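SEQUENCE-TO-STRUCTURE ENTRY
===========================
What this section holds: a protein sequence and its matching fold, both as plain text.
Question of interest: how does this chain fold, as expressed in C-alpha cells?
***
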Amino acid sequence: MAQRVPTDPKLLEAAARLADLDLSPERIAQLVPAMDGFYALLDALHRGEPGETPPAIAFRAQWTER
C-alpha cells in the first residue's frame, strides 16, 4: 500500500467550502491532525484480506414477530 501524504489544509478548506461549511483557519488547523487520525483508521481497514466475507448485498435481515 502506498504511503499516505499528510492532510493538506488547503484541500480541507476546499472540501469544507464544497459542503457549504464556513471554517476559520484556526478550526482547519485543529482538524488537520484529526483527519490524519481518521485516514489512519481507514487505512487499517485495507491492511488485511477480506477472506470469505460475503458481499453486503447478500445480507438479508429478517425478523419474525413473536
Observations:
- The chain has a mean pLDDT of 85.
- The helical segments are 9-18, 25-45.
